[in-house]
């Protein structure tokens, strides 16, 4: 934000108009697609891309990430899209709108080729370990583990860092470690990744581009979303990682075909017969 304000006078008129638009409503600019940015500024979409590069960013997505980061560092708000004066209905609309806008923008950056690389590695693996460090990453690792064994893929997930390290040492060539960390620089997880790589396993990382975890991995499934104003791993990051896991699971199920479908059908029928997965199931405890 400060960079845009400081350079306004030295920019050509078209670029200055874009900069003034962003400075006037930075929260909106972070959440808005290229076409709408161009429409409001009265320029073409390629002009927005050129502007982003002119102010030192790799592209529009990088510009938005940096803009969101500057807002998070200086904002007094508990959420980047919510103002202190917002009414309850506005809070609902702005929080939900922020997430949906993030997803719409982030979707265009997902690389299907990297998804397919991960699917190919996991599908043929003798064993797949999932690991994360921190509350959110642990939850996501266990969620992926639960999806994998339902598909018939041998998998493990350990919350204890010592067990993660020990398990990684037991991996072999052809096995896979899926390491999950939005922050991407947790020392214990990076040690586990290093051990897995030495053992010959393929490492799939669900993290941001450019983190130490990304650099240590064989396959990156990127979750480059705006930072949170108050939490290191906010709602946007959690949802984006969950969606990566969902996409990965769906593609694995499709790739495995009838074998996976029959297993999932059998699990569904079992839970239904035991009345554990039905709206008509009795309350736990018999009360």
Automatic annotation (TrEMBL):
Residues 1-74 form the HTH rpiR-type domain. The lineage of its organism: Bacteria, Pseudomonadati, Pseudomonadota, Alphaproteobacteria, Hyphomicrobiales. The keyword Glycoprotein does not apply. Residues 118-258 form the SIS domain. CDD domains: SIS_RpiR. The keyword Hydrolase does not apply. It comes from the Bacteria. Keywords: DNA-binding, Transcription, Transcription regulation. It comes from Methylobacterium platani JCM 14648. This is Transcriptional regulator.
């Amino acid at each position: 934000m400060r960079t845009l304000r400081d350079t306004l006078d030295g920019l050509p008129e078209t670029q200055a108009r874009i900069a003034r638009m962003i400075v006037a409503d930075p929260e909106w600019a972070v959440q808005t697609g290229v076409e709408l940015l161009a429409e409001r500024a009265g320029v073409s979409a390629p002009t927005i891309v050129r502007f982003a590069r002119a102010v030192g960013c790799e592209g529009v997505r990088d510009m938005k990430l940096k803009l969101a980061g500057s807002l998070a560092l200086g904002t007094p708000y508990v959420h980047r899209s919510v103002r202190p004066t917002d009414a309850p209905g506005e809070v609902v609309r702005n929080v939900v709108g922020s997430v949906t806008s993030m997803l719409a923008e982030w979707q265009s950056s997902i690389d299907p080729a990297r998804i397919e690389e991960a699917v190919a590695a996991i599908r043929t693996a003798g064993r797949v370990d999932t690991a994360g460090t921190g509350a959110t990453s642990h939850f996501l690792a266990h969620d992926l583990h639960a999806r994998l064994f339902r598909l018939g893929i041998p998998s493990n997930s350990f919350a204890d860092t010592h067990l993660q390290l020990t398990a990684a040492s037991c991996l072999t060539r052809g096995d896979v470690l899926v390491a999950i960390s939005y922050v991407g620089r947790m020392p214990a997880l990076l040690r586990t990744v290093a051990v897995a790589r030495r053992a010959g396993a393929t490492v799939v990382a669900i993290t941001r581009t450019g983190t130490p975890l990304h650099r240590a991995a064989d396959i990156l499934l990127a979750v480059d979303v705006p930072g949170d104003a108050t939490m290191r791993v906010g709602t946007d990051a959690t949802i984006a990682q969950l969606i990566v896991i969902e996409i990965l699971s769906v593609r694995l199920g499709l790739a495995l075909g009838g074998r996976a479908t029959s297993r999932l059908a059998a699990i569904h029928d079992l839970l239904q017969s035991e009345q554990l997965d039905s709206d008509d199931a009795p309350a736990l405890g018999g009360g």
